Amino acid sequence: MSNSAQRFFRIQLVRSAIGLPARTRATLHALGLKKRMATVFQPVSQSSAGLIMKVKELVTVEEVEQRLTKQQIHLERKPDPGYYIEKTAAQERAELSR
């Protein structure tokens, strides 16, 4: 299988591992999840699917075409600013002076 056709599981830890058995915490660590709301990408395989099934109540999973970089994940989670700048003050003065 070529690298461009490889698919990935996008796994995000949504529930905390505090108070869980050591085996469950070890499974999360094997998936690469250390903190809540962390996102990791694992290649689609039977072993990855088996680990995910052990902690399915704690994570969200979706299958994606490619990995995202940390910066892409950050920009994806960044909220809308809530406002848009139509004109700056300098543009407004330039229009009024014409």
Automatic annotation (TrEMBL):
It comes from the Eukaryota. Keywords: Mitochondrion, Ribonucleoprotein, Ribosomal protein. InterPro entries: Ribo_uL30_ferredoxin-like_sf (IPR036919), Ribosomal_uL30_bac-type (IPR005996), Ribosomal_uL30_ferredoxin-like (IPR016082). The keyword Ribonucleoprotein applies. One of its GO terms (biological process) is translation. GO terms for molecular function: structural constituent of ribosome. This is Large ribosomal subunit protein uL30m. The keyword Ribosomal protein applies. It comes from Penicillium chermesinum. Belongs to the universal ribosomal protein uL30 family. Residues 9-59 form the Large ribosomal subunit protein uL30-like ferredoxin-like fold domain. PANTHER family: LARGE RIBOSOMAL SUBUNIT PROTEIN UL30M (PTHR15892:SF2), MITOCHONDRIAL RIBOSOMAL PROTEIN L30 (PTHR15892). It is found in: Mitochondrion. Component of the mitochondrial ribosome (mitoribosome), a dedicated translation machinery responsible for the synthesis of mitochondrial genome-encoded proteins, including at least some of the essential transmembrane subunits of the mitochondrial respiratory chain. The mitoribosomes are attached to the mitochondrial inner membrane and translation products are cotranslationally integrated into the membrane. One of its GO terms (cellular component) is large ribosomal subunit.
